[in-house]
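Appendix B. Raw example, untouched.
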Amino acid sequence: MVYTANDRDNLKRPYDDIRAIVQQAERDGFDSIWLVDHFLYRDPDEPTRGVWECWTILSALAEATQRIELGTLVLCNSFRNPAILAKMATTLDEVSRGRLILGIGAGWNEPEYQAFGLPFDHRVDRFEEALQIIKPMLREGRVNFVGRYYQARDCEDTPRGPRREGPPLMVGSEGPRMLKLTAKYADSWNTGYMGKPETMASRLAQIQAACREVGRDPATLDITAFIALWFPDLQEKKPGSFYVNPLIGTVEEIASAIRGYEELGYVKHIMFQIAPYTTETRRRLTEALQLYHHMQQ
């Protein structure tokens, strides 16, 4: 059971508020918190919405918490040099005492690429090269790679962090080629935006097929699900395009859905993005978590 600490509708939240939310989530028994990795959003006929830089906030939260896992959902590969990113991940894993989950993807939000002067072309090609640097850097502490987009010549990641093979590598992906890269390189796969547990069926079939295509046992790839949770009584208008088939219901129904994901047997983590993102909706999700734990007893 995991928890997202921010939302697109609350991008201007001060760090003190973010820290308080995360510390409360830790006290409430959530397993982990996740931050998006964006610089800004620009939609037609709407003012620009800026976002705090993800890695800086996550590093501060590592010091502000004790137990809860810290994840990126997910980092945009194009924003950072992959060898330096691996070094950053090892360092944050040290600061957090082994609580980092390194989530990464190819990126998609073109306006922020344009605004910050980042290349938007060949994103999957760049991502494939980046994985060939990041994976050995995390696992073995060294890499020697020369590609079209990235080079890491005789590069070493030292000193090593608290985990011998570094933090786990999670890839958020869809589409045949990205799923194959996930199956080849990742420790876990994230898919979204899910609703009830049965919405996982077709996605699971796709990633299992990708695993078989690259010769990997699907059981060795952890599955994580990003759930869109909507409370229509608190926000009448349905959220944006990500909420195609959201999870809706009472505290009891949400708890039953959590249990349903557990009973699938192959989903290791679930993440919630809540609409609207308010004190009341976080309270309801916390009650659902507590009820789920009661069901297990």
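End of appendix B.
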